Amino acid sequence: MSLLRAQCPNCKQWLSVNYTPEMEELMVACPYCRVKTPFVNWNKKDERRNAEEEQKRKDEEERKRLEAEAERKRQEEENRRRQEEENRRRQEEENRRRQEEENRRRQEEENRRRQEEENRRRQEEENRRRQEEENRRRQEEENRRRQEEEIQRQRAEQERLYREEQERLRREEEERNRWQSSTIGTLFALNCGNTYSLFPGRNVVGRMANSSTADIQIPDLTGQRRMSRSHLVINVLKENGRFVHYASLNSPSVNRTCVNNMPLIYGQQVLLHSGDIIDLPDESIRFDAIEKNQEETELGFI
User: Fold this and answer.
1) What is the bridge-based pairing of β-strands 216-218 and 242-249?
2) Residue 170, SS3?
3) Which of 72, 79, 200, 267 has a Cα-to-Cα distance from 44 of 20 to 30 A?
4) What is the rounded radius of gyration, in angstroms, for the C-alpha atoms of the chain?
5) Are 246 and 234 in contact (CB under 8 A)?
6) DSSP state of 252
7) Considering the entire predicted model, what is its pTM?
8) What's the confidence (pLDDT) of residue 300?
9) Closest CA to 276 of 202, 187, 180, 192
10) Can you tell me the distance from the alpha carbon of 153 to that of 184, in angstroms, rounded to the nearest whole number?
């Protein structure tokens, strides 16, 4: 063991230590700044001194350490005093804030009470006004009821005549519609033998199925289900006073469909004539249309 001088790398204070090689691997706390650092980082100066000088130096170092310790305690006391002062100031501020909040709450409570009193007074005034309005309305309602009874008696005969006229017009319209609907064509399924009536507007033709929404559902006798549930559309339109029929595909993904052996293309509309054959997958149907003059001739023979 040898005596040497070592300088703290943090506060740069020199002190004397009894040095051993094992100290190089230790963390050493400076007695002045209290900071622990690896002793290997300390600046060392090997000086051999006599016992008296060494004792004086140690005493001086102890005095400095005590002074540093006293300064540190004084600083801590000052910080404590400042913290207490800050806490006291915060407490006073909190008390002042609470007092202001209490005053504000009391003022709001007073304002609320005044507002409720004002609302009660307004409600009573509104109830009185409503009662007067209700009495006036009842009187007006009674007068209006008497007038309406008189008017109803006067209109009763006019309504009866109007209903009779409307009934006559309705019967004429039904007769006219029945006459016009007789000129709409029909579809005859060549395999299953079923006949299907067409109606004005859009008629969807497809394979019969529980989930099908087609207007005309044709049975699938082959069981191959090549016909779509919504396969073909026949639009029945009125042009120049007569009904015309247009056939088109409902979807671009349906199987091959022909009219008189001519393939239908999606987006194309084909005008149908009586006797046209529409070849659907697994079924062929014939379009039949009766013209007015033919119907009149047939009716003449009945």
Assistant:
1) unpaired
2) helix
3) 72
4) 56
5) yes
6) T
7) 0.40
8) 25
9) 187
10) 47
Quick count: other Cβ atoms within 10 Å of Cβ 14?
13
Long-range contacts of 44-47 (CB under 8 A, 24+ apart): 44/4, 44/5, 44/6, 44/7, 44/19, 45/4, 45/5, 45/6, 45/7, 45/14, 46/2, 46/4, 46/5, 47/3, 47/4, 47/5
Residue 253 CA, chain-centre distance (Å), reads 35
Regarding beta strands 242-249 and 14-19, do their DSSP bridges make them parallel or antiparallel, or are they unpaired? unpaired
Task: Record the tokens describing residue 79, joined without a space.
Answer: 């910080």
- Mention every residue, 6+ apart, whose C-beta is less than 8 A from residue 219: 192, 194, 208
Token pair, residue 105, equals 């709450």
pLDDT digits (tens, 9 = 90+) for 170-222: 887 775 665 455 468 899 999 989 999 999 899 999 999 999 999 999 999 88
And the tokens for 62?
């102890």
How many angstroms separate the CA atoms of 296 and 277, rounded?
A: 26
